[in-house]
DNA sequence: TAGGCCATCTGGTCCT
DNA sequence: AGGACCAGATGGCCTA
């Protein structure tokens, strides 16, 4: 780190700020940190505090200015470079010398801040975990990365909003393409696997279709993709090749699709393996066309038409008045009886109040 | 070994 | 003044 600091001109301010801790052979500081942190700590607290003061940041100045006059305990500020009478005084609040008490207070303050920051990040990660559970392809053992989780969630929301808007069922291929937009190859494979698609198939098709799917003015046609649940034949669907939770989730998708479009609810995923809330299983059958978007938007190329029946999360409310949602598996599963006639869905999309809210997210 | 991902520390900024 | 939030920096772990 020191090497980098001193070799990189862009880091000169940092070097200057931390000047004075070139000698990082302190042992006491390391001990102090060990109470509070894991490996990954690089800058000694004491040194940082010294650097802070020496650097003359506004915060440091205000702290110093706020301090009561204290006994000086031999710690020469700024290396004793300023001697009144010999050099012009610096402007601004007079710097106080670092006393042992002040150093201790600074340490304590920094430790408390570190603890709060850890807690905050843990909360953030916890929320991210919850998000992972409600987007497609949840797996306890093979978690999506943070960025991939956010991307997938965004695509998922987009897909759902389009389905609500259009009231039509998209074909599976288009749906997966939307979900996978901007995702890394491994995540794309995972999503495709969850939805029982060979990722190569739809990626190839995506290339062939060019901008047809994603251009601002695009409207894509129905893909008569011969989708069928193949959990018995698909390698990704077999639990032997997947983590248990993943397998369960995959089953949920397969079964939901089957139950809705083959009219045959599978009892198999009345599984208790999965502890968390199920992602809204999606069943796709239809096509959609996209809405014009601001071309300046980074997501401008997204325009799709979706439609689907989907099962809501347990306890969640239907997003549209007359759409009937159910939850597969543990929560009772989706039965074809619960699915509204297709024409009903067409009738409701224009009065679904959530649509505007949902799309405001994408079309701001 | 390089690159991706992650946890943590840290200082700055803004808000209450 | 203190807390929340943020972004940069850093080192550890894992995988191709």
From TrEMBL:
Bias kind Acidic residues: ranges: 65-84
Gene Ontology biological process terms, A to Z: axon development; positive regulation of transcription by RNA polymerase II; sensory organ development
A cellular component term, taken from the record's GO annotations: nucleus
Domain of life: Eukaryota
GO MF, any single term: E-box binding
UniProt-listed SUPFAM superfamilies: HLH, helix-loop-helix DNA-binding domain
Localization of this protein: Nucleus
Quaternary assembly: Efficient DNA binding requires dimerization with another bHLH protein.
Name of the protein described by the UniProt record: Neurogenic differentiation factor
